[in-house]
Amino acid sequence: MILNIVAIALLAGITSGALYGLMNIVFVTPYIDRAVEIEASRIGSSVDLAYRGWQKQGAILAGLLAGVAYSSLFSLVYSYITSRKALTLGSGVALALLIWVVLYLMPAIKYPANPPAVGDPDTIYYRQYMYITYMLISGVAAIALALLRIRMGAWMRRGMSKNVSIVAMYASIMVIAYILLPPNPDTIDMAEDILTGFRVASAFTSLSLWLMIGLTTSLLWSRTGLIKRRMHIP
Amino acid sequence: MHDGNGGEHRQITKVEFRYPLLAILLLAAIFAFTSFAVGYDQGQLLSMVFGDQAYKENFLHELFHDTRHALGFPCH
């Protein structure tokens, strides 16, 4: 059973991650190429094509690893919930959408994704630290509020006001975090169309990755017989 | 279901699934390792094998470069 749970996480991660890698090559790489060209022309040199070729080759492998990473996280959350209440295919995909909002969209509102040539190498650790902090605030708040929502089931009767108050609490936490955390220290100097195009493409492929993980994990849990639920008749 | 006395009673079936704790630990370990490698490594992982050379080459950072940008992680 333990191995089956891990096998599902790996299978869902590898298949979704491979597709994610391909999607990045199609949708994101063109913007990265243009940004790298601008970066090279700024310092008066040409793009090192061999070097770029090497960076591009990593896209599938990196996609696979990212798929496995996010899929493990998704399986953790999914299996915890489904051990209490069986999830349908639709709610599995909705859960993936929710995690994308918490872990991608929220941090992106404060610290948007940037193509190469925008970030200052000297501030990389600082920016990573800020990004992780913001992501953690969003993630921990979401988990804490989800657990609170489960408890609330016993306290209150009306479901709608419970959901509204949970979302309102999450939103207030994120607004406070948005105000308190310092902005990205780098000056952003990049053509507007490349910047916007890159950010839209990044949001699109990462959303696709989460949805693919949600779909494949739900299918593997419910349709393959890898996970057996004991029928328990009291 | 008839209980034989002419009355009916509902049978409550509880679908049970006991969560193995070890699976949580394994998934968390896989998540920690892969997300660090793809999202944050600046030479640390390979420095265990190659020493300081790994920080200079920053092999994994460059290999995962484009995807790191695409995922929204900070990069240069």
Write the layout of secondary structure elements.
The complex is a heterodimer of chains A (234) and B (76).
Chain A: H1 2-42, H2 49-82, H3 89-110, H4 124-155, H5 159-180, H6 192-223, E1 230-232
Helix pairs in contact in A: 1-2, 1-6, 2-6, 3-4, 3-6, 4-5
Chain B: E1 14-16, H1 21-39, H2 44-50, H3 53-57, H4 59-63, H5 65-71
Explain this structure to me?
The complex is a heterodimer of chains A (234) and B (76). Chain A is mostly helical. In chain A, 78% of the residues lie in helices and 1% in strands. Chain A has two domains: 1-117 and 190-234, no CATH class; 119-187. Chain A is flat and about 65 Å long. The model of chain A has no long low-confidence stretch (mean pLDDT 89). Chain B has 76 residues and is mainly α. Chain B has a domain at 21-71. Chain B contains five helices and one strand; from the N terminus they run E-H-H-H-H-H. Mean pLDDT of chain B is 79; it is low at 1-7. The interface between A and B is large, with 65 and 40 residues. Strand 1 (230-232) of chain A pairs antiparallel with strand 1 (14-16) of chain B.
Short description:
The complex is a heterodimer of chains A (234) and B (76). With 234 residues, chain A is mainly alpha-helical.
Strand coverage percent of chain A: under 5%
Number of strands of chain B: 1
* Main beta-sheet strand count, sense and barrel state of chain A: none
| Fraction in helix of chain B | 55-70%
Beta-strand percentage range of chain B: under 5%
Largest sheet of chain B: none
Number of helices of chain A: 6
Q: In one word, what is the shape of chain A?
A: flat
Key structural traits:
heterodimer; A: 234 residues; mainly alpha; 2 domains; 6 helices; B: 76 residues; elongated; disordered N terminus
